[in-house]
Amino acid sequence: MMRALALALCLLAGAAMAQPQPGMDLPRIVPADDAPGDASQASRAPPAAGAAEILVMFHLPAPHYRADSYGSANYRDDAGRAARQRIAAAVAQDHQLELMEDWAMPALSIDCYRMRLPAGVAAAPVLEALSRDGRIEWAQLIQDFAAQGGSDPLYRMQPAAGPWQLEQVRKVATGRKVMVAVVDSGIESGHPDLAGQVMVEENFVDNQKYVAELHGTAVAGVIAARAGNGVGIEGVAPDARLMALRACWQSASATRCNSFTLAKALNFALSNGAHIINLSLSGPQDRLLQQLVEVAQARGIRVVGAVDPAQPDGGFPANMPGVFAVASDGTAPRAGVHALLAPGRDIPTTMPGGRWGVVAGSSYAAAHVSGMLALLEELKPQLAAVQLREAIVLNQGSAPLTGIDLCATIVRISGKCSCACQPGTSSHYARSP
Known about the structure:
Layout: H1 2-13, E1 37-38, E2 41-42, E3 53-59, H2 81-94, E4 98-105, E5 110-116, H3 123-131, E6 138-141, E7 144-147, H4 166-169, E8 179-184, E9 198-203, H5 214-224, E10 241-246, E11 248-250, E12 255-258, H6 259-271, E13 276-279, E14 281-282, H7 287-298, E15 302-306, E16 324-328, E17 340-342, E18 347-351, E19 355-359, H8 362-379, H9 385-391, E20 393-395, H10 406-414, E21 426-428
Helix pairs in contact: 5-8, 6-7
């Protein structure tokens, strides 16, 4: 099968322009480049050696909030912003910090300011002093995150096509009218398999032109590549629509993100109608990101996180209660990590430059589950999270490979199924990851 897949990929890529070869998606924590800038403009140049960056949160008073002030990636003026900037500047001066950049996050009623410590100054004493400063809500380090790694020619070679019976499932659900926020590196929205699938493009990394990158494009294809267009692959939910929220950037060997870029993207997803948020990444516990994820869950938004196999607890955000934690099929189970298993090996998907390639990693397992949740959202909109979790059906025993019985899950959710469902051979997924 792999020989046939390789031949098909070569034929599809033959007429495309040359580009870097896609590699395996290996989950890693990689230090991110911290960026200099000012309070109105972000950039991605490396910081001075030894300079740490922190986030300082200020309360955003309700009377100053206007829906049109924070609805996009642009931070436009509101009535109280100048006053809050003066307070932030005073805090920075008092604690010998360099004020870099600010961003309003009305989902948490805060203004978030990015500040830099002088080179060689330890962060812990400064954070301790800031915790006693009555002008601020809290302060924290900026932390680093890393990506975890039909009629269409490659459809039959997709690992989920057979076990999830996608061809039959699409007779009852395709993800229509469901918005999936892909918080990741840039997505190639003009790719032949993604044309028309991306409704929104926003860049939260820098002020440069939005760029297409490998990881985000590959994740997007797994979720929502077009079906029946005669080329490439088919997404799990081909009628879902995507928010392409670039919060990560591609380096020579990894895809990296940080607390600030991810928080800006999550805030946008919360404010602009996302039904599902796909986070195919992992990193350390982060207070700001945790609060944004909790707000999403409180609003009924499904949050999907990729399990980092190198972390005993699966890593953040997959280890958060209520997050749909997903590991690649074939992953050895570990005590205390309750994760769904989905295809994460030898996955054909979309690549920049109008190409297709093969990837592997829990990033793509998570993307499969985001696609599945889009199907379930179409069938049963706004189903309570507890009921949704209890309705997910797992396969018992060693077969099939994915761990999820999608057809049986659809029967439990909606009573509809056009495929050969056998709920009696499955069990509920009743535990929260």
